[in-house]
From TrEMBL:
Keyword Hydrolase attributed: yes
Keyword Hydrolase: yes
UniProt organism field: Asanoa hainanensis
Biological classification of the source: Bacteria, Bacillati, Actinomycetota, Actinomycetes, Micromonosporales
Domain BD-FAE-like: 27-218
Protein name (Swiss-Prot/TrEMBL): Prolyl oligopeptidase family protein
Amino acid sequence: MLVLPAPPPDAVVRYGPHADHVADVRLPSRGPGPLVVVIHGGFWRAEYDRAHTGHLAAALADLGYAVAQLEYRRTGADAEGGWPATFEDVVAGVGALPALVAAAADALGRPAPTAGPPIVVGHSAGGHLALWYAAHAPSDAVPGGVLALAPVADLVEAHRLDLDGGAVEALLGGDPTARSAAYAAADPLPSISLRLPTVILHGTTDAQVPIDLSRRFVAAAGTVDSQITLLELPEVGHFELIDPRSAAWGKVTEALRSLRR
């Protein structure tokens, strides 16, 4: 995992009143590019923030994308996230960012992102939120595509496996029996065909989020939506997918290009 800090963003924009209602914006150095909204992981916990996807965001900006790293309320002793606040933030943030990034680019004298809905990229718990957003996006804010990197794509199974020591219970306020309605509402499975290009990348040796969660999600989602693709990466772990220096990075950028097409 990368430990050195990423280059600073070009701007920080605010989409709401809470301290976590912000996003780091990075703009491409050459020409206008499409907007990519990055949702970071960290098992939805407050101890992890958008900083750890900074290298990914900077690398995507170098490739010509306009990138906004969305922050959101998370779980923890003094945090205010969890169901439904975390999910409300994702809806509000992704919906607001196209206009906010365009305004930031204008203020900096840089080209605005190209027209069209953003592509949403999420890693780990952020991958869960990206898939969930695609299934629940308002009709006027549907993304142009989703790239989920090692997503926590099955919350009931993630709870059974006790991933990150109770992370799912912290997010949803209890177990699947006591909080069945919250688990159902937070499920990223689409209920109808989204007609939305969606690619999931998952390493076969991921120790933090087992690949079986993505396999289970795709098997279930495929019954209603044929545009969801799972690419399994042999001998790849969890953090390589957000590390531009890793051998897996080429697969990430290739998948992103496929969504643009």
